[in-house]
Amino acid sequence: MTQFVSVPTQADSAPAELRRSTRVRLQTSGRVVLMDYGEARSILVQDLSVHGACLKVGDWADLPNRFHLLLRRTPSEPHFQVDCTVRWRVGQAVGVEFDRAMAGYILAELIRQPAFRH
């Protein structure tokens, strides 16, 4: 399992970028489903890579550290499931690492989706 550690940069003491892969900024909908399938909520995926994502989960204070993330490649296809572990939390956002890397072609299809509209 990967452990992320903040390392200050010389320029501004902000944490250095330690992700294993480049994340793509996007605004697309998804669903978080608890591991026991007892609860599910809609969320917003703010950025995504083959190894993880930044999710806007709203006011879900008791969101557990492990859950399923459901995403769709196209509106006509069923959701596919990615198991996640929370790596950080800031306000309504959580950074997650995928338990298994997402296939590159799936990431490419998600990036080509039209933007999520409220």
What does this structure look like?
This protein is mainly β. It has a single domain (24-111), classed as Thrombin, subunit H, CATH 2.40.10.220. Helices cover 7% and strands 41% of the residues. The chain has one helix and six strands; from the N terminus they run ββββββα. It has one helix spanning 104-111; strands spanning 24-34, 40-48, 52-56, 66-71, 80-90, 93-98. The protein has a six-stranded antiparallel barrel with strand order 1-2-3-6-5-4. Residues 1-16 have low confidence and may be disordered.
Q: What is the total number of structural domains? A: 1
Largest sheet: 6 strands, antiparallel, barrel
CATH architecture label: Beta Barrel
Please name the CATH topology. Thrombin, subunit H
Q: Radius of gyration from the CA trace?
A: 14 Å
- What is the topology, as strand order, of the major beta sheet? 1-2-3-6-5-4
Give the tally of β-strands: 6
* First-residue to last-residue Cα separation: 35 Å
The stretches of 5 or more residues where confidence is low (pLDDT under 50) are 1-16
CATH superfamily label: predicted glycosyltransferase like domains
Q: Could you say which structural class the secondary elements and strand pairing correspond to?
A: mainly beta
- Would you tell me the overall average pLDDT? 80
